[in-house]
Design brief:
By secondary structure, the chain is an alpha/beta fold. It binds nicotinamide-adenine-dinucleotide.
Length: 530
């Protein structure tokens, strides 16, 4: 409870929520008084002074009730953006808080001589009305935000835009990674000319299946090299930027490097693209920008990032929005957490990791089981990029889309249970919360309505896919550093070219420059003039 009070945040949406709750409390107590007054009238006949007496009791009591209920609601996590008040237990927490508020209020007025105690029936009715209103309003918000939007999307399906085959050249930056290795074959199958600009940090293996495709041109370089970016951008119609330092742990290694790669380079690349008359710039952002929140979030919701990774993405989105113009469409895709197999499968992401642990270690260890996360399969992520690339301009021009499906919103506990269902001999362990504060449930109606995006994969199907890969030996050691971004950078496995460009080329150069100077003859010391 104390933690909830410490995490109180008075952002506009929180203030509105608190006001709405207090309106419900005040309204419920007023309704209870009215009911009691009507009962009194019916018993004792019309007595004009009764109304004034009831109004006085209301005025004396309502501010105490409101103060107490606000404090108790806040202590129960109603107005934090974090952890205690959410998920399956939400209704229970609300009911408990309302009951406690009325108990404390009852006790307070009993102890305070300044207020006239209201009849106990009024307190009881007030409690009942408040309970119904607070639970009802939350159920309604849930219904409205998920079920109703989903129903509307089903009722008015918008066909997937007519996709055209043409000889457009598409530049995919960072396309040899988890998402990109699934995207490249899709683009090539559609007949596009594809240029890949990637440092190939994880080698050529992730794209081995398309390596010799006649329509694929590969430029192996760091996207911070301006000459290489300019070379890669020639004759390009659309840029898809997937490259970067990806994930909270990898970004936390070095703040300067993360800012340089994820933000500064994104700005430079986009400026070059705009200058070279690229028409569309599709940027990979993340639903991590939402951070920690209790409500279902859409593209207009407030952002509460809890990591440098998420902040670097928000800053990049802002920079890109500033660059957009009539001729330069920026499309932001905020991907949910990805799962499933691609050319470069990652096992540092929760669904894949829990599945691998279940198969190999016979343990499914879940941290923070009640935290929500939206999940989307890696194939569906590349489908979304295709749609953003091919959709008519008016559907995507300067738009931001959450990428996923409403059914993909699951708590980490639910993911653990799904894995347990498919690997029954593994033990499901809830280890409590670790340091990861992310908790967000996301609404995906926009991408569905505007681009006709419907995920083809469920989390369960993706888990089965990973199980098959592990059992068939397609994935040998899920702990190998190539499957994890942070391990790859920290364990001494990165190739020389990666180290040279990524991990501080400038420091090495400066050191060598210093050594050269020390071997040279010392310059003569100038003698001061008299
Ligand atoms: N995987 C997810 O769950 C997820 C979720 C949300 C958003 N995203 C976003 O999608 C994008 C792709 O993610 P991913 O999981 O495929 O990442 P990844 O780490 O698997 O791939 C990143 C690719 O970028 C390349 N790269 C990195 N720095 C580079 C540089 N300086 N120069 C050239 N190439 C460089 C790497 O070689 C690699 O091929 C990222 O922008 C990420 O933030 C991913």
């Amino acid at each position: 409870m104390i933690q909830n009070l410490k995490e109180l945040r008075f952002s506009p949406d929180v203030v509105l929520r608190a006001l709405a709750d207090q309106l419900m409390v005040g309204g419920s107590f007023a309704a209870a008084m009215v009911v009691h007054l009507l009962l009194a009238y019916s018993g004792a006949g019309a007595n004009p002074s009764l109304l004034g007496q009831y109004a006085q009791v209301y005025a004396q009591n309502i501010w105490i009730l409101m103060l107490v209920s606000f404090a108790i609601f806040a202590a129960n996590g109603f107005y934090t953006r974090g952890r205690a008040y959410r998920g399956r237990y939400k209704m229970l927490v609300v009911a408990q808080a309302v009951a406690l508020a009325y108990l404390v209020y009852g006790f307070t007025v009993f102890m305070l001589p300044v207020a006239i105690n209201p009849p106990s029936l009024v307190v009881f009715l007030g409690f009942l009305f408040t309970l119904v209103l607070t639970l009802g309003s939350r159920a309604w918000v849930h219904y409205w935000s998920i079920v109703e939007l989903e129903r509307k999307a089903k009722a008015n399906p918008i066909p997937i835009p007519n996709l055209q085959l043409n000889d457009r050249t598409i530049l995919v930056i960072g396309g040899a990674g988890y998402i990109g290795s699934g995207l490249l074959p899709r683009l090539l199958e559609k007949g596009y000319k594809v240029r890949l600009l990637d440092l190939l940090m994880f080698g050529k293996e992730p794209i081995a299946h398309v390596l010799h495709h006649p329509n694929l041109e590969i430029i192996q370089a760091d996207f911070r090299q301006v000459d290489k970016v300019v070379e890669a951008m020639r004759g390009v119609d659309t840029v898809v930027h997937l490259g970067g330092l990806v994930g909270d742990p990898a970004c936390a290694l070095d703040e300067n490097l993360t800012t340089e790669i994820n933000l500064v380079a994104t700005r430079t690349i986009a400026e070059i693209a705009k200058g070279m008359r690229v028409k569309r710039f599709v940027f990979a952002s993340t639903c991590s920008v939402y951070g920690a929140s209790d409500i279902v979030l859409n593209e207009r919701s407030n952002l509460y990032p809890v990591s440098l990774y998420a902040r670097s993405k928000i800053a990049s989105e802002q920079v890109l929005h500033k660059l957009q113009s009539d001729d330069f469409s920026v499309v932001i895709l905020r991907f949910g957490t990805i799962f499933g197999l691609s050319g470069r499968t990652r096992f540092d992401l929760v669904v894949n990791l829990l599945t691998a642990k279940a198969i190999v270690d016979k343990k499914i260890t879940v941290f923070g089981g009640d935290q929500w996360r939206p999940f989307v399969h890696v194939d569906d992520a590349s489908l979304a990029v295709m749609l953003a690339t091919e959709a008519p301009k008016e559907r995507v021009h300067n738009e931001t889309f959450n990428v996923g499906g409403n059914d993909g919103n699951l708590t980490l506990g639910m993911v653990g249970e799904l894995v347990k269902k498919l690997v029954p001999d593994a033990e499901l362990i809830d280890s409590g919360r670790d340091g990861d504060r992310r908790n967000y449930r996301v609404d995906f109606s926009k991408i569905r309505n505007l681009l006709g995006f419907v995920p083809q994969w469920t989390v369960e199907k993706g888990i089965q896919q990973v199980i098959d890969a592990l059992r068939s030996g397609r994935v040998r050691d899920y702990r190998a550093s190539m499957y994890s971004n942070v391990k790859y950078l920290t364990e001494d496995t990165a190739s020389e070219s990666v180290k040279q460009y990524y991990l501080g080329w400038e420091k090495g150069l400066i050191e060598r420059a210093h050594m050269q100077n020390t071997t040279e003859e010392k310059p003569p010391i100038a003698t001061p003039q008299a």
